[in-house]
From TrEMBL:
Residues 288-478 form the Mannitol dehydrogenase C-terminal domain. GO terms for molecular function: oxidoreductase activity. Gene3D superfamilies: N-(1-d-carboxylethyl)-l-norvaline Dehydrogenase, domain 2, NAD(P)-binding Rossmann-like Domain. The keyword Oxidoreductase applies. Its EC number is 1.1.1.-. This is Mannitol dehydrogenase family protein. It comes from Dyella halodurans.
Length: 494
């Protein structure tokens, strides 16, 4: 027993790898022998559960594509992983759950504390690719354009050599490379935004134009911003995972992560510098990914957000719980089949029915506890790309939008409930939303009109009379938003 206790206190590290039990899969290469070829902005759980795993598969044969993970503001990831030589454990949650140690992140930086080191990496000729998972809010967009009133952008435009935002860093790095006569890196967005590469390119160009017109021209001509679609359900780390990992590894991992076994990465094959042979490790290289990203965002993520807000009002805790509620599960299945799929142009050859069935099966995965509260974060950023864009397309096609408005109305009730209970929202618009919600009275006309003032969320739909009427009806149908009232609304809507 004494031996076990002292082992349990050991930290995961390169040295500890040799002593891990054989049931735990380890990197098939010497992490110390790899070289950094990618800078990744935003090495949170999703990146570490998804892209870093594809690279971990690749490094054995292609050792010059290791990752430098850069957090823009928080020191948490660096402080957790640096003492572990960048190693961390991934739990794959399926019928047979497996633990795997990932070694592809070889350097961790926090830009706020080490800006010079980040800029030096971006200017390193061995870095040929910059990838990003900074979530919707990290793009600092207002609609399709760069939000030049965003405090980080205001700062970066005034001091472009000491940026705060991801856009500021991307452009500062490109500027340095141009000055040094180096080829630019490709910029690959891996966030849940339709046309993510195009949006990022537009924002970067708008930023560059304001600081240096020649640089903007160079970026426009020389830099590729391919789009990509990423998919893997990644529930946040909890104590149960930490304990399981510690007991199976026999050593401490400060920040293990977990995800379902399913994973998909579709990448537009348009790079301006060398790229890793992603196709060798299961990613799909494509010349046109538009369609894949829309289908995934609007079907999977649209359904997820619907479950999150409706399910939270029903006092349910996880996606699994929500899928066990026949009325809610039935509503979401119909929403995808009858309201979302017919309103989008699906990629050629995609069987919508099979795709939807597979998503519902993933949501029912009994090995996963994916909290609705996690999915409910950042609603103001997620709803426009996940559901409101489908509503706009459905209106253009003259289709009914009543079912699509129910989750939007549920979000409003959810925001209202959190404000009335004094629970802070996890959302960049938290303050605006809370003061708006506190002033609501429960009257559908007044409340919906107040929410529709939020241009950042509702433009360009806010003035559409059909949308206003359908949203008011959905808001009224949810009544006082108790579980019983939500259940009745779910039944009545279709
Ligand atoms: C989820 C996504 O948290 C959320 O908003 O909808 O993280 C979802 O699990 C992934 O996009 C699946 O690929």
């Amino acid at each position: 027993m004494a031996g076990m206790q002292s082992q349990a206190a050991t930290r995961l590290s390169l040295q500890a790898l040799a002593n891990l039990p054989s049931s735990v899969r380890k990197p098939a290469y010497e992490p110390a022998d790899t070289r950094i070829g990618i800078v990744h902005l935003g090495p949170g759980a999703f990146h570490r559960a998804h892209q870093a795993v594809y690279l971990d598969d690749l490094l054995a044969d292609h050792p010059d594509w290791a990752i430098c993970g850069v957090s823009l503001h928080s020191t948490d990831v660096r402080n957790a992983l640096q003492p572990q030589d960048g190693l961390y454990t991934l739990a794959l949650l399926g019928e047979q759950s497996q633990l795997r140690v990932i070694g592809s992140i070889r350097e961790l930086l926090c830009a706020r504390e080490e800006p010079a080191a980040v800029l030096a990496r971006l200017a390193d000729p061995a870095v040929r690719l910059v990838t990003l998972t900074i979530t919707e809010k990290g793009y600092c967009l207002a609609g399709q354009d760069l939000d030049v009133s965003h405090p980080d952008i205001v700062h970066d435009l005034a001091s472009p050599s000491t940026p705060h935002s991801a856009i500021g860093y991307l452009v500062a790095g490109l500027r340095a490379r141009r000055q040094l006569g180096l080829a630019p890196y490709t910029v690959l967005s891996c966030d849940n935004l339709a046309d993510n590469g195009h949006r990022l390119r537009r924002a970067a160009l708008q930023f560059a134009q304001r600081i240096d017109a020649d640089l903007a021209e160079w970026i426009e001509a020389e830099v590729a911003f391919p789009c990509s679609m990423v998919d893997s359900i990644t529930p946040a780390t909890d104590d149960a995972l930490r304990e399981r990992v510690q007991s199976e590894l026999g050593c401490v991992d400060a920040w293990p992560i977990q995800r379902e076994t399913y994973t998909q990465w579709v990448i537009e094959d348009r790079f301006c510098n060398e790229r890793p042979p992603f196709e060798c490790v299961g990613a799909t290289m494509s010349h046109d990914i538009a369609g894949y990203d829309r289908a995934k965002l609007r079907l999977l993520n649209g359904a997820h957000s619907s479950l999150a807000y409706l399910g939270s009002l029903m006092d349910l805790e996880t996606v699994g719980d929500a899928m066990s509620e026949p009325r809610l599960a039935g509503f979401v299945g119909r929403l995808m089949r009858e309201s979302i799929a017919p309103a989008i142009a699906l990629p050629e050859g995609m069987d919508a029915g099979a795709y939807i069935d597979a998503i519902l099966e993933r949501f029912r995965n009994p090995s996963i506890r994916h909290r609705l509260s996690q999915i409910a974060w950042d609603g103001s950023q997620k709803l426009p790309v996940r559901l409101l864009s489908t509503i706009a397309d459905a209106l253009a096609l003259g289709r009914s939008i009543a079912p699509l408005c129910l989750p939007i109305a549920a979000w409003m009730h959810f925001v209202r409930r959190q404000a009335r209970n004094g629970v802070a929202l996890v959302d960049p618009l938290n303050e605006v939303l809370s003061s708006l919600a506190v002033a609501t009275t429960g009257d559908p006309d007044g409340d919906v009109a107040a929410f529709l003032q939020l241009d950042a969320v509702f433009a360009p739909l806010s003035a559409d009379k059909r949308f206003m009427a359908a949203l008011r009806a959905a808001y009224a149908a949810l009544g006082n938003a108790t579980p019983a009232a939500v259940t009745s609304a779910l039944v009545a809507v279709h």
